[in-house]
Amino acid sequence: MTKKQTVILLHGLARKATSMNKLETALKEQGFTAVNVDYPSTKHDIESLAESSIGDAIDKVERGSTINFVTHSMGGILVRQYLRRHKIENLGRVVMLGPPNSGSEVVDILKNMPGFKAVNGPAGIQLSAKEHGLPNQLGPANFELGVIAGSRSINLVLSTMLPMPNDGKVSVESTKLEGMTDHVTLPVTHTFMMRNPSVIEQVITFIQQGKFKPVEK
What we know:
- The chain contains eight helices and six strands; from the N terminus they run βαβαβαβααβααβα.
- With 217 residues, the chain is an alpha/beta fold.
- It has a single domain (5-209), classed as Alpha/Beta hydrolase fold, catalytic domain (Rossmann fold).
- Strands 2-1-3-4-5-6 form a six-stranded parallel β-sheet, sandwiched between helices.
- α1 (21-29) links the parallel β1 (5-10) and β2.
- α2 (46-59) crosses α3 (74-85).
- The N and C termini lie far apart (39 Å).
- The model has no long low-confidence stretch (mean pLDDT 94).
């Protein structure tokens, strides 16, 4: 009998679980059990968010099921933070969409502007691309990780603050993480990548096979 597979979905900063609905539906159609987490991303720091959101989600998983993760943006940093402190015995694979694994230069440029912290909260401030930023303190991946980066932007102003290519919020280079299993770059934007059919196809492929489909250049 095939072991049951659960996928925990974690949205990004200042988003809601509804942003992951299309992915959730696609995963369920492939036979996965999906736990689409809604967490208050702008209310607490990353350490607190990781403990509460991921801990609560794992409690909802049927005993014996393999636990996979699909994350968007800051959701990937929550997983890294959680796995830094906890061992998940039945951990499967992780797919991160547009993760600021080395932080985002946008945070460093805009963090002192009026309203930035009010909109993005304490967790947003922690996503600095500098050495002291939390993403750069979490270490390499010691789990099966597939990363999908975007190379298109709908925010030309923010794009100029980032190394090229980027998705408007995170550079392709910043999505990479030492120890990752596979990495692919697609012509999608940070804001909408989780709803893109090609991204969804690649997510499912990695969870099933542990690698992405080759992308035509």
